[in-house]
Amino acid sequence: MPNYTPPASPRDEVQGYVYLARLCSKVRLHASGDLDPEFHPNMGQAMDAWTCQFLHVDYTDVQRVILNGASDEDVLMWCWENGRKPAAYELEWWNSFMRNRGFRDDLTEKLHFRKKEAGWQDRNEIQSFFDFLDADDGRL
What we know:
By secondary structure, the chain is mainly alpha-helical.
């Protein structure tokens, strides 16, 4: 059985932006063959897509920049130059939105389903999808 590398935590920040480091990490790991295949169908979807939408860039363009060797910080700069640089208050809203997805919102049922599917329905510390992702990657 292959030993895959978990991507960066969704909580890891790139100049104050949550999740972008995870997106970049998944792209790099996928390209090197070190990303668990369970991630493959959702590449560019859900939180990946939301991150790109927030920055007004296309996922495939961001993927290309990453695969051309850009650091996480370079990717963010590229997004600012080719999409937009949100205001500080927008970034605060964004980070809060992302950190709390699944907690008393439209994705709560999906989070409960995923927890049950993983056999974690009794793990009360998993309150959001960030918690779930960190638990799934062995960090929580």
